[in-house]
Amino acid sequence: MNKHDITSIKQLLSTPKKIIIVPHKNPDGDAIGSSLGLYHYLLKGSHKIDVIVPNDYPSFLKWVPGNDIVLKHDSQTNECDTLINDADIIFTLDFNALHRTGNMEQVLTESSAIKIMIDHHQEPDNYAKFTFSDVSMSSTCEMVYHFIDMLDDTDSIDANISTCFYLGIMTDTGSFRFSSTTSTTHQIVAKLIEKGANNTNIHNNVYDTNSYERLQLLGCALNNLRVIPESRTAYITLSQEELNKYNYKKGDTEGVVNYGLSLEGVVLAAIFIEDKQEGIIKISLRSKGNFSVNEMSRAHFEGGGHINAAGGKSYLSLNDTVEKFISILSSYNKALNDE
């Protein structure tokens, strides 16, 4: 995003507009944090703003300031489509291809609104008039902070905005332990705390509020953990039957894949989760070093993401998906063992 783009966006936002903010399907902490943080910021400009998510998100994100205004496209389709069709500007956050919004793809594609993309994933599509894309950034929340800085308006960042941004940076950096966490990331976090983000409360709300059944499901997942030493790989499976047994709720498997990656000597970790309703196996991949799970997911599982964190899907059965995964590992053994 260059100076001309910023000047144009400043001019756009200088008068009240009808603005829609959209994150990706199955929104996570960074998607919700960036969307609601930008919402609180733009609200200061007297714009009419709606945040529309493709579908619901975990309960451990529903304490975030502004949560009560969020609309869900899958259950409020007509209302959401009308708002999108009437919008002057649409911000798309934490994704860079419209198919990542699921059933919202068509209405977003057909919308004549000016689209502004802010995202840190690889290989962005060319659908937005203004694109702020940087794969080196820790999170979209960090990028929205920089976006506000480019607008010369960080003085407008208050406690609500800071709380939202801290949430997204914290979750997308794995509590500041991933390699994308830079000195600039920490400097921004320090400013967010100064402006009112309560880091202890945010961490507790996300990570320290577990149900008994969620912990039982974690135990089940760890019991299903398998290691392939020659490929320096660990994987976890969860069937629909196991999810049902422990009364699975959206978000209950968040972060479980990282347990596999925490094993000594493991470079690649995967979790395969059966979703009978969608008819797919949901896949999350994590890696260490320079091994790109983004490339693996794009090549084999219709997905993508970052070098060290990516997602995908399979239309095979759970067992067949795992067998496919194991069968392709041999072609990656050299890269995995070179790490």
Main sheet: which strands, in order across?
Answer: 3-2-1-4-5-6
Give the proportion of residues in helices.
40-55%
The biggest beta sheet, please? 6 strands, parallel
Number of helices: 14
| Mean of residue pLDDT values | 95
**H/E element string?**
HEHEEHEHEEHHHHHEEHHEEHEEHH
Fourth CATH level, the homologous superfamily of the largest domain:
inorganic pyrophosphatase (n-terminal core)
Structure description:
This protein is of the alpha/beta class and 339 residues long. The chain has helices at residues 3-12, 29-43, 77-86, 105-110, 140-150, 159-172, 183-194, 199-207, 212-223, 240-245, 257-261, 293-300, 318-329, 333-338; strands spanning 18-22, 48-53, 71-72, 89-93, 114-119, 130-133, 226-228, 233-238, 268-275, 280-287, 304-305, 309-314. The chain is built from 14 helices and 12 strands. The longest helix is centred in the N-terminal third of the chain and has 15 residues, at 29-43.
Reconstruct the topology from this structure.
Blueprint: H1 3-12, E1 18-22, H2 29-43, E2 48-53, E3 71-72, H3 77-86, E4 89-93, H4 105-110, E5 114-119, E6 130-133, H5 140-150, H6 159-172, H7 183-194, H8 199-207, H9 212-223, E7 226-228, E8 233-238, H10 240-245, H11 257-261, E9 268-275, E10 280-287, H12 293-300, E11 304-305, E12 309-314, H13 318-329, H14 333-338
